[in-house]
Amino acid sequence: MIPAVFYAIPAFVLLVVVEALSYRFLPDDDERGYELRDTVTSMSMGVGSQVVALPWKAVTIVVYAAVYTVAPWHLSASSAGTWVLLLFADDLAYYAFHRAHHRVRVLWASHVVHHSSLRFNLSTALRQSWTPMTGLPFWLPLALLGIPPWMILLQQSFSLVYQFFLHTERVDRLWRPVEWVFNTPSHHRVHHGSNRAYLDRNYGGILIVWDRIFGTFEPEGEQVRYGLTKNIGTYNPVRVAFHEFAAVWQDVRAARCWRDRAGHVLGPPGWKPRADG
């Protein structure tokens, strides 16, 4: 099964070109725009993620199907209610996935790729992980709810396509009711910020209501500084993809006890052992 996102790639590339041209002819001093090496890196990460995603989707659908077969009931794809349930269940699963990937370092090692650019434009949306395996458990409850596996994969694709359009500085705040319910470019700029006030905020996919409910919402205020709290300073796609895994391994090897090793793997990014004393 080829994911729906694969078919959207030509449109993504075209829109990246259009946005880049908009900066060329309508520059804005407050927006960082595009830089060739950064864009090439983001596009390279996107290509690599799709190469990995194609066989991994086959594994994913087998696992989803196995869980679906033991579900106590099977929901009908012809029912509008199933699609409404799927929208909310998928988005909540994405919130849980996204929040965990910011708060558990070994998961962050996979997700940090997406936050590694110092710029925020449509090409940044394509800067995706080459290790998607960490996301599988978060959607298994949907199959156990009796939602057909193909519907889960399709909704995941819809969510990713929606989120592509969030990665832009060219769109200011939208109509207030839209900003209250949906994830928007303004909300997602906050999520990509390395400002202290913006760290670990606005995890939503399509909806922002989960962040409001669970206390992780932050509106856009001060100008956003994109990138990481400690930037990696490379355009090499392989280093971008695996630098944090290497850093985790180095910390684990240097740790003096198993408790500290577990902390480096399962603690939040930046976790340090307590000083002796």
Q: Give the helix level as a range of percent.
A: 55-70%
Average predicted confidence as pLDDT: 95
The low-confidence parts are none
Separation of the first and last Cα atoms: 56 Å
Task: Write down the Rg.
Answer: 19 Å
* Helix-strand string: HHHHHHHHHHH
Query: Care to count the β-strands?
Result: 0
Helices, by number, come to 11
Task: Report strand %.
Answer: under 5%
**Mind summarizing the main beta sheet?**
none
Give the overall shape, derived from the CA principal axes.
globular
Indicate the structural class: mainly alpha
List keywords for this structure.
277 residues, single chain
What's the helix and strand layout?
Layout: H1 4-25, H2 36-69, H3 80-103, H4 105-111, H5 136-144, H6 149-164, H7 176-181, H8 185-191, H9 209-214, H10 237-254, H11 258-266
Kindly describe this structure.
There is one protein chain. With 277 residues, the chain is mainly α. The protein is 57% helix and 0% strand. It has helices spanning 4-25, 36-69, 80-103, 105-111, 136-144, 149-164, 176-181, 185-191, 209-214, 237-254, 258-266. The longest helix has 34 residues, at 36-69.
Task: Provide a short characterization of the protein structure.
This protein has helices spanning 4-25, 36-69, 80-103, 105-111, 136-144, 149-164, 176-181, 185-191, 209-214, 237-254, 258-266. The mean pLDDT is 95.
